[in-house]
């Protein structure tokens, strides 16, 4: 396990820092880059101002298109896969700073937030070199407030740990376009349908059917956010849905939006 060093391009200038506990890093990554499993001594808010990434933690996979950001606690193992060229803007928070701000207890788990226009502009404004210290402090406070108002789990796929259940999950994730029968999948991983159903419910808090639907919708989100030329009809067909209305219904159940509404915001 790699513990990454503090950000190389952290902003240490007093005019840009909030006390000594917040650092900013801007980087660009090309599609296909993988940041292998590692952790940071700081907590971090990872945002792709452009592009799409996938963040994998011990609990599951978070798909992070441009209208989402992911919170990763300090010393929390994660890997990042760049699915489309990204302009990453990362805010690093020292644990001592979070404790002083009385925010550490509420930020001990990873989560994804829906990035509102306000949060988007606040993050980008933090990287404005002309910002005064007072402005930077206010922007940091605004970002922290927005984190608690925009938490969203629509792009999260919980990953089971029990070996048989995990093998079944990996089979589905390898090709989420198929319509998997739990009886067939259970035989493949060496258990009964009843046991596999129970395991999925206990380990992911979702039924097997709901988990498969979430995996399929996540595949749709990835396609819509990385291919500007693909149509909703094509995605629905590629993912095995009988019709666009059926696909839209499933998509809305998971994300609260239709595929068209989602595509317009990415």
From TrEMBL:
One of its GO terms (molecular function) is sequence-specific DNA binding. Signal peptide: none annotated. It comes from the Bacteria. It comes from Bradyrhizobium macuxiense. CDD domains: cupin_NimR-like_N. Pfam families: AraC_binding, HTH_18. Residues 166-265 form the HTH araC/xylS-type domain. This is Transcriptional regulator. The keyword Repressor applies. Keywords: DNA-binding, Repressor, Transcription, Transcription regulation.
């Amino acid at each position: 396990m790699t513990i990454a060093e503090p950000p190389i391009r952290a902003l240490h200038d007093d005019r840009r820092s909030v006390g000594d506990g917040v650092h900013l890093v801007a980087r660009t990554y090309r599609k296909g880059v993988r940041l292998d499993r590692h952790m940071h001594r700081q907590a971090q808010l990872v945002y792709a101002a452009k592009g799409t990434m996938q963040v994998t933690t011990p609990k599951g996979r978070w798909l992070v298109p441009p209208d989402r950001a992911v919170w990763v606690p300090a010393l929390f193992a994660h890997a990042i896969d760049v699915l489309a060229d990204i302009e990453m803007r990362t805010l690093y928070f020292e644990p001592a700073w979070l404790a002083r701000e009385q925010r550490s207890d509420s930020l001990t788990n990873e989560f994804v937030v829906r990035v509102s226009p306000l949060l988007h502009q606040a993050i980008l404004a933090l990287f404005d070199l002309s910002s005064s210290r007072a402005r930077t402090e206010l922007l940091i406070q605004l970002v922290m407030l927005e984190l608690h108002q925009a938490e969203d789990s629509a792009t999260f796929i919980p990953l089971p740990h029990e070996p048989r259940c995990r093998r079944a999950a990996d089979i589905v994730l390898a090709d989420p376009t198929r319509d998997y029968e739990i009886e067939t999948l259970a035989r493949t991983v060496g258990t009964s349908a009843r046991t596999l159903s129970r395991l999925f419910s206990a380990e992911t808090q979702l039924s097997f059917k709901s988990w498969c639907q979430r995996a399929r919708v996540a595949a749709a989100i990835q396609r819509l956010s990385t291919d500007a030329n693909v149509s909703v009809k094509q995605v629905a067909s590629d993912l095995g849905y009988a019709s666009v209305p059926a696909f839209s219904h499933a998509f809305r159940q998971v994300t609260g939006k239709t595929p068209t509404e989602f595509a317009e915001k990415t």
